[in-house]
């Protein structure tokens, strides 16, 4: 196989991570959709600010090396915003 330059190698690493992320993000949205159905059936509000704060806290705690915590929390806020749209 032809030797890849560092840029190509890094991009291959990103592709591998992205493949896993896509599967996990899709799984998260599937569960969020189920939660949405439950909320509809029980007349519960879609937005739960206390739960969102809890998610952001947990995400920071799970990021044990503490790199990029703010960026990860921003990505999570976007995931939660999209989850709420799915639940509408
Ligand atoms: C998924 C839920 O609905 C909304 C989306 C959340 C999420 O994506 O984690 C969290 C709270 C809610 O605002 C939930 O209530 O758990």
From TrEMBL:
Protein source organism: Limosilactobacillus gastricus DSM 16045
Every Chorismate mutase domain range: 1-88
Protein name per UniProt: Chorismate mutase domain-containing protein
Single GO biological process annotation from the record: chorismate metabolic process
InterPro entries membership: Chorismate_II_sf, Chorismate_mutase-related, Chorismate_mutase_GmP, CM_dom_sf, CM_II_prokaryot
GO molecular function (one): chorismate mutase activity
SMART domains: CM_2
Top-level taxon: Bacteria
Keyword set, alphabetical order: Isomerase
Coiled-coil region list: none
